[in-house]
Write a structure and sequence with these properties.
Order of helices and strands: HHHHHHHHHHEEHHH
Number of helices: 13
Number of strands: 2
Radius of gyration: 22 Å
Bound molecules: fe (ii) ion
Length: 332
Protein backbone atom coordinates (compact mmCIF):
# COMPACT_ATOMS: atom_id res chain seq x y z
CA UNK A 1 0.00 0.00 0.00
CA UNK A 2 1.14 3.61 0.28
CA UNK A 3 2.64 2.41 3.56
CA UNK A 4 3.96 -1.16 3.26
CA UNK A 5 5.49 -3.40 5.92
CA UNK A 6 5.50 -0.75 8.66
CA UNK A 7 7.75 -1.86 11.51
CA UNK A 8 6.03 -1.62 14.93
CA UNK A 9 9.18 -2.51 16.87
CA UNK A 10 7.41 -5.52 18.45
CA UNK A 11 7.83 -9.23 17.83
CA UNK A 12 4.73 -10.22 19.76
CA UNK A 13 1.49 -8.43 20.69
CA UNK A 14 1.13 -7.91 24.46
CA UNK A 15 -1.93 -9.28 26.24
CA UNK A 16 -3.99 -6.90 28.43
CA UNK A 17 -2.41 -8.44 31.59
CA UNK A 18 1.11 -7.67 30.37
CA UNK A 19 0.34 -3.99 29.80
CA UNK A 20 0.95 -1.20 32.29
CA UNK A 21 -2.22 0.46 33.72
CA UNK A 22 -1.65 3.42 31.37
CA UNK A 23 -1.31 1.13 28.35
CA UNK A 24 -4.44 -0.77 29.41
CA UNK A 25 -6.43 2.48 29.61
CA UNK A 26 -5.07 3.48 26.19
CA UNK A 27 -6.04 0.15 24.60
CA UNK A 28 -9.48 0.29 26.21
CA UNK A 29 -10.02 3.70 24.70
CA UNK A 30 -9.10 2.41 21.26
CA UNK A 31 -11.33 -0.65 21.66
CA UNK A 32 -14.22 1.67 22.51
CA UNK A 33 -13.62 3.61 19.31
CA UNK A 34 -12.48 6.82 21.07
CA UNK A 35 -9.90 8.67 18.99
CA UNK A 36 -6.39 9.43 20.19
CA UNK A 37 -5.40 13.08 19.77
CA UNK A 38 -1.88 14.58 19.71
CA UNK A 39 -1.75 15.63 23.38
CA UNK A 40 -3.16 12.36 24.75
CA UNK A 41 -1.02 9.66 26.33
CA UNK A 42 0.22 7.12 23.81
CA UNK A 43 2.75 4.28 24.15
CA UNK A 44 6.07 5.09 22.50
CA UNK A 45 5.64 2.17 20.06
CA UNK A 46 2.29 3.56 18.89
CA UNK A 47 3.82 7.01 18.31
CA UNK A 48 6.85 5.69 16.45
CA UNK A 49 4.83 3.28 14.30
CA UNK A 50 2.44 6.06 13.34
CA UNK A 51 5.34 8.34 12.40
CA UNK A 52 6.72 5.57 10.17
CA UNK A 53 3.33 4.81 8.65
CA UNK A 54 2.16 8.39 8.06
CA UNK A 55 5.52 9.61 6.75
CA UNK A 56 5.85 6.62 4.43
CA UNK A 57 2.37 7.43 3.16
CA UNK A 58 3.33 11.12 2.71
CA UNK A 59 6.53 10.20 0.84
CA UNK A 60 4.51 7.93 -1.47
CA UNK A 61 2.18 10.79 -2.37
CA UNK A 62 5.10 13.07 -3.18
CA UNK A 63 7.23 10.51 -5.05
CA UNK A 64 4.04 9.34 -6.78
CA UNK A 65 3.85 12.72 -8.50
CA UNK A 66 6.99 11.87 -10.50
CA UNK A 67 5.89 9.06 -12.86
CA UNK A 68 2.73 10.97 -13.78
CA UNK A 69 4.38 14.40 -13.83
CA UNK A 70 6.56 13.04 -16.66
CA UNK A 71 3.47 13.02 -18.89
CA UNK A 72 2.05 16.48 -18.20
CA UNK A 73 3.86 17.97 -21.18
CA UNK A 74 2.93 15.02 -23.42
CA UNK A 75 -0.80 14.76 -22.67
CA UNK A 76 -2.66 14.32 -25.99
CA UNK A 77 -5.24 17.10 -25.46
CA UNK A 78 -5.80 20.23 -23.39
CA UNK A 79 -8.58 18.48 -21.47
CA UNK A 80 -6.35 15.52 -20.52
CA UNK A 81 -3.51 17.88 -19.61
CA UNK A 82 -5.77 19.90 -17.28
CA UNK A 83 -7.08 16.70 -15.63
CA UNK A 84 -3.58 15.29 -15.14
CA UNK A 85 -2.24 18.58 -13.76
CA UNK A 86 -5.11 18.74 -11.24
CA UNK A 87 -4.51 15.13 -10.23
CA UNK A 88 -0.77 15.52 -9.74
CA UNK A 89 -1.37 18.70 -7.75
CA UNK A 90 -3.85 16.84 -5.51
CA UNK A 91 -1.15 14.27 -4.74
CA UNK A 92 1.16 17.08 -3.62
CA UNK A 93 -1.64 18.28 -1.34
CA UNK A 94 -2.08 14.78 0.10
CA UNK A 95 1.61 14.69 0.91
CA UNK A 96 1.31 18.01 2.73
CA UNK A 97 -1.70 17.01 4.88
CA UNK A 98 0.13 13.84 5.81
CA UNK A 99 3.41 15.56 6.71
CA UNK A 100 1.31 17.87 8.94
CA UNK A 101 -0.37 14.84 10.56
CA UNK A 102 3.08 13.29 11.20
CA UNK A 103 4.35 16.56 12.70
CA UNK A 104 1.64 16.38 15.40
CA UNK A 105 3.55 13.35 16.73
CA UNK A 106 6.62 15.44 17.53
CA UNK A 107 8.77 14.96 14.44
CA UNK A 108 9.87 17.81 12.17
CA UNK A 109 9.26 18.09 8.43
CA UNK A 110 13.01 18.48 7.88
CA UNK A 111 13.73 15.19 9.66
CA UNK A 112 11.10 13.40 7.55
CA UNK A 113 12.39 14.80 4.27
CA UNK A 114 15.96 14.08 5.24
CA UNK A 115 15.04 10.42 5.85
CA UNK A 116 13.45 10.27 2.39
CA UNK A 117 16.32 11.96 0.59
CA UNK A 118 19.01 9.86 2.22
CA UNK A 119 17.14 6.66 1.34
CA UNK A 120 16.40 5.76 4.99
CA UNK A 121 12.63 6.13 4.63
CA UNK A 122 10.56 3.93 2.37
CA UNK A 123 7.77 4.86 -0.01
CA UNK A 124 5.39 2.60 -1.90
CA UNK A 125 7.05 0.05 -4.19
CA UNK A 126 4.61 0.92 -7.00
CA UNK A 127 6.27 4.23 -7.81
CA UNK A 128 9.50 2.53 -8.82
CA UNK A 129 7.99 1.32 -12.09
CA UNK A 130 8.31 3.40 -15.27
CA UNK A 131 5.47 5.08 -17.22
CA UNK A 132 6.22 4.07 -20.80
CA UNK A 133 3.15 5.10 -22.74
CA UNK A 134 0.14 7.41 -22.32
CA UNK A 135 -2.12 4.49 -21.33
CA UNK A 136 0.08 4.08 -18.23
CA UNK A 137 -1.46 7.31 -16.91
CA UNK A 138 -4.88 5.66 -17.21
CA UNK A 139 -3.63 2.46 -15.60
CA UNK A 140 -2.14 4.37 -12.66
CA UNK A 141 -5.39 6.22 -11.99
CA UNK A 142 -7.55 3.13 -12.35
CA UNK A 143 -5.33 0.58 -10.58
CA UNK A 144 -2.93 2.49 -8.30
CA UNK A 145 -5.39 5.09 -7.05
CA UNK A 146 -8.01 2.32 -6.99
CA UNK A 147 -5.82 0.22 -4.68
CA UNK A 148 -5.09 3.31 -2.58
CA UNK A 149 -8.82 3.93 -2.07
CA UNK A 150 -9.33 0.31 -1.05
CA UNK A 151 -6.82 0.79 1.76
CA UNK A 152 -7.62 4.37 2.71
CA UNK A 153 -11.40 4.16 3.09
CA UNK A 154 -11.05 1.91 6.18
CA UNK A 155 -8.20 4.16 7.43
CA UNK A 156 -10.74 6.97 7.86
CA UNK A 157 -11.64 5.02 11.02
CA UNK A 158 -8.01 4.92 12.19
CA UNK A 159 -7.55 5.49 15.94
CA UNK A 160 -5.27 8.52 15.50
CA UNK A 161 -7.42 11.62 14.94
CA UNK A 162 -5.21 13.71 12.60
CA UNK A 163 -4.49 10.70 10.33
CA UNK A 164 -8.11 9.55 10.14
CA UNK A 165 -9.33 13.07 9.36
CA UNK A 166 -6.69 13.58 6.65
CA UNK A 167 -7.96 10.37 5.05
CA UNK A 168 -11.50 11.71 4.73
CA UNK A 169 -10.47 14.49 2.36
CA UNK A 170 -7.85 12.38 0.58
CA UNK A 171 -10.39 9.64 -0.19
CA UNK A 172 -12.76 12.11 -1.87
CA UNK A 173 -9.97 13.20 -4.20
CA UNK A 174 -8.73 9.65 -4.83
CA UNK A 175 -12.13 8.71 -6.14
CA UNK A 176 -11.80 11.43 -8.83
CA UNK A 177 -8.30 10.13 -9.59
CA UNK A 178 -9.54 6.62 -10.16
CA UNK A 179 -12.37 7.75 -12.42
CA UNK A 180 -10.16 9.92 -14.60
CA UNK A 181 -7.83 6.94 -15.12
CA UNK A 182 -10.67 4.62 -16.04
CA UNK A 183 -12.18 7.23 -18.34
CA UNK A 184 -8.84 7.66 -20.11
CA UNK A 185 -8.54 3.90 -20.69
CA UNK A 186 -12.15 3.64 -21.81
CA UNK A 187 -11.48 6.30 -24.46
CA UNK A 188 -8.40 4.39 -25.63
CA UNK A 189 -10.17 1.03 -25.64
CA UNK A 190 -12.93 2.51 -27.82
CA UNK A 191 -10.32 4.09 -30.08
CA UNK A 192 -8.04 2.56 -32.69
CA UNK A 193 -6.58 -0.93 -32.56
CA UNK A 194 -3.22 0.60 -31.70
CA UNK A 195 -4.68 2.55 -28.77
CA UNK A 196 -6.33 -0.59 -27.44
CA UNK A 197 -3.00 -2.41 -27.66
CA UNK A 198 -1.37 0.37 -25.64
CA UNK A 199 -4.08 -0.01 -22.98
CA UNK A 200 -3.53 -3.79 -22.83
CA UNK A 201 0.23 -3.29 -22.58
CA UNK A 202 -0.25 -0.86 -19.67
CA UNK A 203 -2.53 -3.34 -17.86
CA UNK A 204 0.01 -6.13 -18.43
CA UNK A 205 2.74 -4.09 -16.76
CA UNK A 206 0.73 -2.50 -13.91
CA UNK A 207 -1.48 -5.39 -12.79
CA UNK A 208 1.03 -7.31 -10.66
CA UNK A 209 2.77 -4.27 -9.14
CA UNK A 210 -0.71 -3.03 -8.14
CA UNK A 211 -1.43 -6.29 -6.31
CA UNK A 212 1.98 -5.98 -4.62
CA UNK A 213 0.92 -2.60 -3.21
CA UNK A 214 -1.13 -4.42 -0.55
CA UNK A 215 2.09 -5.89 0.85
CA UNK A 216 3.01 -9.46 1.83
CA UNK A 217 0.58 -12.00 3.28
CA UNK A 218 0.16 -10.67 6.80
CA UNK A 219 -1.54 -13.43 8.76
CA UNK A 220 1.77 -14.36 10.32
CA UNK A 221 3.11 -10.86 10.93
CA UNK A 222 3.40 -9.52 14.49
CA UNK A 223 3.63 -5.99 13.04
CA UNK A 224 0.28 -6.32 11.29
CA UNK A 225 -1.34 -7.84 14.38
CA UNK A 226 -0.01 -5.01 16.56
CA UNK A 227 -1.07 -2.32 14.09
CA UNK A 228 -4.53 -3.87 13.90
CA UNK A 229 -4.80 -3.93 17.69
CA UNK A 230 -3.91 -0.23 17.72
CA UNK A 231 -6.38 0.39 14.86
CA UNK A 232 -3.82 2.07 12.68
CA UNK A 233 -4.33 -0.79 10.25
CA UNK A 234 -7.94 -1.73 9.87
CA UNK A 235 -7.96 -4.73 7.53
CA UNK A 236 -5.46 -7.40 6.58
CA UNK A 237 -3.43 -7.06 3.38
CA UNK A 238 -4.94 -10.22 1.92
CA UNK A 239 -8.55 -9.22 2.48
CA UNK A 240 -7.95 -5.80 0.89
CA UNK A 241 -6.15 -7.41 -2.06
CA UNK A 242 -9.03 -9.86 -2.59
CA UNK A 243 -11.55 -7.02 -2.58
CA UNK A 244 -9.44 -5.12 -5.10
CA UNK A 245 -9.28 -8.12 -7.47
CA UNK A 246 -13.03 -8.74 -7.11
CA UNK A 247 -13.80 -5.12 -7.92
CA UNK A 248 -11.28 -4.66 -10.72
CA UNK A 249 -11.69 -7.79 -12.87
CA UNK A 250 -15.24 -6.88 -14.07
CA UNK A 251 -13.97 -3.37 -14.82
CA UNK A 252 -11.22 -4.86 -17.02
CA UNK A 253 -13.84 -7.00 -18.77
CA UNK A 254 -15.94 -3.91 -19.46
CA UNK A 255 -12.90 -2.31 -21.10
CA UNK A 256 -12.43 -5.46 -23.20
CA UNK A 257 -8.96 -6.02 -21.71
CA UNK A 258 -7.43 -9.25 -20.39
CA UNK A 259 -5.99 -9.42 -16.88
CA UNK A 260 -2.51 -10.97 -17.26
CA UNK A 261 -3.07 -13.88 -14.85
CA UNK A 262 -3.76 -17.36 -16.26
CA UNK A 263 -4.82 -18.56 -12.79
CA UNK A 264 -7.57 -15.96 -12.51
CA UNK A 265 -11.06 -17.47 -12.29
CA UNK A 266 -14.33 -16.90 -10.45
CA UNK A 267 -14.76 -19.27 -7.52
CA UNK A 268 -18.49 -19.83 -7.10
CA UNK A 269 -18.05 -21.49 -3.72
CA UNK A 270 -16.01 -18.68 -2.16
CA UNK A 271 -17.88 -15.93 -3.98
CA UNK A 272 -14.50 -14.41 -4.92
CA UNK A 273 -11.95 -14.56 -7.72
CA UNK A 274 -9.04 -16.97 -7.29
CA UNK A 275 -5.81 -15.52 -8.60
CA UNK A 276 -2.16 -16.46 -9.08
CA UNK A 277 0.73 -15.94 -6.67
CA UNK A 278 2.61 -12.67 -6.69
CA UNK A 279 6.31 -12.69 -7.57
CA UNK A 280 7.50 -11.90 -4.03
CA UNK A 281 11.13 -11.93 -5.10
CA UNK A 282 10.42 -8.96 -7.32
CA UNK A 283 8.42 -7.23 -4.58
CA UNK A 284 11.23 -7.49 -2.01
CA UNK A 285 13.84 -6.42 -4.58
CA UNK A 286 11.84 -3.25 -5.32
CA UNK A 287 11.26 -2.55 -1.61
CA UNK A 288 15.00 -2.93 -0.97
CA UNK A 289 15.79 -0.28 -3.58
CA UNK A 290 16.45 -2.46 -6.63
CA UNK A 291 13.33 -1.78 -8.70
CA UNK A 292 13.47 -0.41 -12.24
CA UNK A 293 13.31 3.28 -11.17
CA UNK A 294 14.33 3.50 -7.47
CA UNK A 295 17.51 5.48 -8.14
CA UNK A 296 15.91 7.75 -10.72
CA UNK A 297 12.97 8.62 -8.43
CA UNK A 298 15.16 9.44 -5.47
CA UNK A 299 17.51 11.51 -7.60
CA UNK A 300 14.60 13.48 -9.14
CA UNK A 301 13.19 14.09 -5.65
CA UNK A 302 16.54 15.33 -4.25
CA UNK A 303 17.13 17.57 -7.29
CA UNK A 304 13.64 19.09 -6.95
CA UNK A 305 14.30 19.75 -3.26
CA UNK A 306 17.65 21.40 -3.96
CA UNK A 307 16.25 23.44 -6.87
CA UNK A 308 13.51 24.75 -4.57
CA UNK A 309 15.90 25.81 -1.84
CA UNK A 310 15.95 29.47 -2.94
CA UNK A 311 12.14 29.61 -2.73
CA UNK A 312 12.19 28.31 0.85
CA UNK A 313 15.03 30.69 1.77
CA UNK A 314 13.17 33.65 0.25
CA UNK A 315 9.90 32.72 2.01
CA UNK A 316 11.75 32.36 5.31
CA UNK A 317 13.56 35.71 4.89
CA UNK A 318 10.24 37.37 4.05
CA UNK A 319 8.55 35.84 7.10
CA UNK A 320 11.41 36.94 9.37
CA UNK A 321 11.34 40.48 7.96
CA UNK A 322 7.58 40.59 8.40
CA UNK A 323 7.93 39.39 11.98
CA UNK A 324 10.60 41.96 12.89
CA UNK A 325 8.53 44.73 11.22
CA UNK A 326 5.52 43.84 13.32
CA UNK A 327 7.72 43.59 16.47
CA UNK A 328 8.95 47.13 15.74
CA UNK A 329 5.37 48.35 15.33
CA UNK A 330 4.43 46.73 18.65
CA UNK A 331 7.35 48.47 20.43
CA UNK A 332 6.39 51.81 18.85
FE1 LIG B 1 -3.06 10.65 -3.18
FE1 LIG C 1 -4.42 9.79 -6.09
Amino acid sequence: MYAQMVDTGVDRVKSMEEMSPEEQAFQKRIDEGIRIEPKDFMPEGYRKTLIRQISQHAHSEIVGMLPEGNWVTRAPSLKRKAILLAKVQDEGGHGLYLYCAAETLGVSRDELLDALHTGKAKYSSIFNYPTLNWADIGAIGWLVDGAAIMNQVPLQRCSYGPYGRAMVRICKEESFHQRQGYDLLLAMCRGTEEQKKMAQDALNRWWWPSLMMFGPHDDQSAHSAQSMQWKIKIESNDSLRQRFVDQTVPQAEFLGLTVPDPALRWNEERGHYDFGEINWKEFFAVVKGNGPCNKERLQARVEAYEAGRWVRDAALAYAQKHESDSDRRLVA
